[in-house]
Fold this protein.
Amino acid sequence: MTIAKGIDLGTLDDLVEGFRDPAAARVITAEIAVLGASLEAKGIEPRLMEVCGSHTVAIFRSGIRDLLPSNVKLISGPGCPVCVTSVAEVDRAIAIANTPGTILTTFGDMMRVPGTSTSLEKEKAEGADVRVVYSPLDALNLAAEKQATGGDERIVFFAAGFETTAPTVAAAILQAADMGLSNFYIQSTHKTIPSAMRGLLDTPELGLSGFICPGHVSAIIGARAYDFIADEFKVPAVVSGFEPLDILMSVKMLLAQIDEGRAEVETEYGRIVSDEGNPRAIEVLDQVFRVSDAEWRGIGTLPNTGLVLRSEYERFDAPLAFDVRVEPGRDNPACECGEILRGLKAPTDCKLFAGVCTPENPQGACMVSTEGSCAAYYKYGRDES
Amino acid sequence: MTDDTILLGHGSGGRMSHELLEKTILPALGWDESDHESKVLEDAAVMHITADSLLAAELVSEGDSRIAMTTDSFVVSPIFFPGGDIGDLAVNGTVNDLVMMGAVPLYLTLGMVIEEGLLISELEAVLSSVKTAAEAAGVSVVAGDTKVVERGKADRLFLNTAGFGVVPSGRTLSAAALRPGDVIIISGTLGDHGIAVMSKREGIAFETPVVSDTASLAGLAAQLFMSEAELRALRDPTRGGLATTLCELATSSNVGIELDELAIPVKPEVARASDLLGLDPLYIANEGKMIVVVAPEDAERAIHALQGHPLGGDAAIIGTCSDDRPGRVTLRTTIGGTRVVDMLSGEQLPRIC
């Protein structure tokens, strides 16, 4: 694992604890209550969407919904990369993993995502060589080791993620090219966030009044990437951190904008996110990937929301290198993942939720990933329904 | 025969097995034939369950001698981790399960499944930990078994321990005994074992090293029993962590449990590592902590008893039982919100015990 090496976790304490301070939470909650009352007097019921799955989990874990006025609604969006990976891509990964002489690597959450008839976890139990890694660089190291020792396996990294993790995958590709590896491939199902938010804004029945924008994605792409939300759609947006007070503060900033009739992109998470983002990461991303249309599970194809390898790096493209064919994927027909991912329904509106569909026996991807809306509702919020 | 690694022949039951037993296993465990009724190795250990020593310790009395038995298998990877190894884990895990039922642990068995190629020095190190942990817990390893499997058919070393203890008269602890108003105490910080194993496995370095809390709870529990506090239940929150164990207690007793997040002790380095790894300390395994459920009027007495023991310095009251929402565990969060605490689903961290 590459994270945290050499970081003194102790010195982060003051920083983090500051964002969990009960007294500060009471102050912000009181301010939110005042704004909520002001909006209620105007007959406004704000519908705020947190796009990012990490926000969904943080909101549940800290019990934030409890602290908001009754006219303020938080809606969970499509921001879990595992959840929005299409059934066909999962089927493809399974077919690749079942090709003799292949080691398929992926993030742990991907293992239990149901494809049309099976999952990577089940195929692993049946004998496919599927391994969980924490970083694409772990997969790269495995490939380098195999090549150096004369192993003839092909190593595939099944890459699902947003702009947050895509630069690391791009860096792994560049490194593989540098090292002259001929046994390393990726299956890219990367997706980009801002264009997907445009799709949500084009869905009038959602009636969104504001966005809580993802902090980690924004650290890469910068807050200016959301300007179109305020400029074209006149909807406020706040880039938020992940601690309880970050989210409360972001809600307050959104409510203040709505109350004052403003629509701007503001950054609550200024300690991490700049207007321009991380130029080096964006450069690496552009060098390796180009934008394409992408299929989102349960939603369908959204234009300009996918990242595929540029032709210069096609030799690393697993779907090209592996001759596998998959049928169009089939979801459980009763699964409401699509409506839930678009915020049109809550997990508790789905007939399968908590009955047929549980974390132990997930029918749709939203129940698998720890950041999926259904998993978060199941784990933290079942009494709310 | 080479001197330094385990070979398949060591599990054959023949001469190599005998050599391993006599030259490595028994000496490492400190087996002394004079301690045993039979001076030779038999097919089973034979003990008097109403031995004089038990009577003298008032552990058993005429007509009331209940025994407690349990078994547990250990497949932790890696077998050596910060703060312990698979040997002390296997002793403490089984000892603690006996202790949680109010038993005084007395005897253990030790079954080993060894992958060929394990260094004999590593086996000796593990067995030495078994010996030390058993002595600390006041138990004797009285029977054992050794099997060797081909390379790739096991991961270095798997252990199984079965434990036997005696429950003194008058001790009735049960997961079904919780009543509204009862107080929930945790004996120390959460998540240390899971994070210690995970950090070793994944090569994460901490400036303040996180070490496993693996320990026998026999002494701590004895202190608690001596306080004569009115105890309802003891549980050690191992796999599934505090959250899962409390859910089991709430369901078994049909009471609600309300926790206060601010009161739950977690070491700062464990909290930060959990954040980074996307884990929740409430669900991470502990190997030397216990949940104590006590009648409200005796809560202070129990806390005092726990804090007077080296393993109980961080003991804290973390919640109460109520008749509201029976079967449910809820948590008041640091910022004043409330959420449901559910059982762990799936596997949060594979193979940590």
